[in-house]
From TrEMBL:
Region (Disordered): 407-439
InterPro entries: LysM, LysM_dom_sf, Lysozyme-like_dom_sf, Transglyc_AS, Transglycosylase_SLT_dom_1
Signal peptide: 1-25
Full protein name: Transglycosylase SLT domain-containing protein
Disulfide bond keyword on record: no
Domain of life: Bacteria
Pfam families the UniProt entry points to: LysM, SLT
Keyword set, alphabetical order: Signal
Family in the record: Belongs to the transglycosylase Slt family.
Basic residues: compositionally biased ranges: 427-439
Keyword Signal listed: yes
Length: 439
């Protein structure tokens, strides 16, 4: 943002005028940043400026007002700025996907005193698609791999994956970025570490120090893999375009500077379809705000919240009071040691094989292994009630190829191949240079 932390509204107003999009555009008229603008290297002071202090009506303006990472000026920034601006329809779609989430992300950044351009990082990470999944199994808006997700208390079980949840993953990502900034004292290096791993960045810093070379991002970039070398320039490119979209013939859909959603407490298990119905939302709309839920039932009791637009939250409460029926039609069933077919399971629980497969993501021509816990429809009063917390936390499911008595030998070969494939996949994952693998 600026070199001094603003402590009064009058000072904030003057600083805001100086950092307006038009002023920024003048510094960046060629589409690539000119002389780097001096900006605060430290995070902003938490709570110094609130939304009412500068009366922004649009979230994009609010983001511009909080720019605080020093600008980067090199050929990669120019190349990525050109590439993004050459696809205005793509940026418009990404911005549309971002609209339910951006206010919350910016608000959380401001609470922590962090640069608001970090709200643009999911453009690079996931194109603001909460269902994004990389080849290295990094998931969600902020692309956490499973291990780092666990480090930041993001629950991952059979029923939900909080790496995809808007509230939990944003909190985790900002905590991680703050930790990296504290470690390196530089936002560009913190971002490089977010992408490549702090251990790798520390290693190349030590290498350049031993050679008497610089340890800033640009001095270290040649030692980074291509993905990381381009990572910070990509964020700078998006930052340039958001600073002055008209200059790049980009239209950013207006996003009101007010909360899009509110959190609603659950009191018992509820089917995703029922929750959407009570909120008077389509399934797609509901899932866009609650992408962490992996099954057709939302478990977790009072510890689990669902996100709804404010108006829909009011409808949810009104309709819930008049519902008068069970909220969930699902329970769990543990597979015993005996081999059982999907058709037999469907018959036992009064449903179809397709529904069993869909609810449990069972691949075609596969069945579930003994010891697995699967989701099944409730069929009796004895199966009423919520799914137990110990099941939620510990349930696992594993698959194997279906086989008949005549194909035992072939099936055994399939299992061997599956194990070989699994081992190969693990080796590929270990050798991948994907984000945040190396701690």
């Amino acid at each position: 943002m600026h070199d001094m932390i603003r402590s009064t509204l009058a000072t904030a107003a003057l600083a805001l005028l100086a950092s307006s999009p038009l002023a920024h555009a003048a510094d960046n008229a060629a589409g690539v940043t000119g002389a780097p603008v001096a900006r605060a290297a430290l995070p902003l002071a938490p709570g110094v400026i609130k939304v009412d202090d500068y009366k922004e009506t649009d979230v994009w303006g609010r983001i511009r007002s909080g720019y605080a990472i020093p600008d980067l000026d090199n050929s990669l920034v120019g190349r990525h700025t050109q590439a993004y601006s050459a696809r205005p329809d793509s940026l418009k779609r990404i911005s549309g996907r971002a609209s339910p989430y951006l206010f919350h992300i910016v608000q959380e950044l401001e609470k922590r005193g962090m640069p608001t351009e970090l709200a643009l990082l999911p453009v690079i990470e996931s194109a603001f698609n909460p269902q994004a999944l990389s080849t290295a199994n990094a998931a969600g808006l902020w692309q956490f791999v499973p291990g780092t997700g666990k480090d930041y208390d993001l629950k991952q079980n059979m029923f939900k994956d909080e790496r995809r949840g808007v509230l939990a993953s944003t909190d985790a990502a900002l905590s991680y970025l703050q930790r990296l900034y504290t470690m390196f004292g530089d936002w560009q290096l913190a971002l490089a570490a977010y992408n490549w791993g702090e251990g790798n960045v520390q290693r190349i810093i030590k290498k350049n120090q031993s050679l008497g070379k610089g340890t800033d991002f640009e001095s270290l970039a040649e030692l980074m893999p291509p993905e990381t070398r381009n990572y910070v320039p990509k964020l700078q490119a998006v930052k340039n375009i958001v600073a002055n979209p008209q200059q790049y013939n980009v239209i950013l859909p207006a996003i009101d500077n007010q909360p899009y959603f509110t959190a609603v407490d659950k009191t018992s298990d509820i089917d995703v379809a029922v929750a959407a119905q009570l909120a008077e939302m389509s399934l797609d709309e509901f899932k866009a705000l609650n992408p962490q839920f992996k099954k057709p039932v939302i478990t977790g009791g009072e510890k689990t919240k669902i996100l709804l637009p404010k108006d829909n939250a009011e409808k949810f409460h009104l309709n819930l009071a008049q519902w008068g029926r069970e909220l969930s039609s699902w329970t769990t069933h543990k597979i015993t040691g005996a081999r059982v077919s999907i058709a037999a399971l469907a018959s036992k629980f009064g449903t179809t094989p397709e529904i069993i497969r869909q609810a449990n993501n069972i691949p075609a021509k596969s069945t579930v292994k003994a010891g697995s816990t699967i989701l099944v429809p409730k069929v009796s009063a004895s199966s009423a009630g919520d799914i137990a917390e110990n099941i939620i936390d510990n349930a696992v499911v594993a698959f194997e190829a279906e086989r008949s008595a005549k194909k035992v030998k072939a099936s055994s070969g399939s299992r061997y191949k599956a194990k070989a494939d699994a081992g190969s996949s693990k080796r590929i994952a270990r050798n991948s240079s994907s984000k945040r693998k190396q701690r």
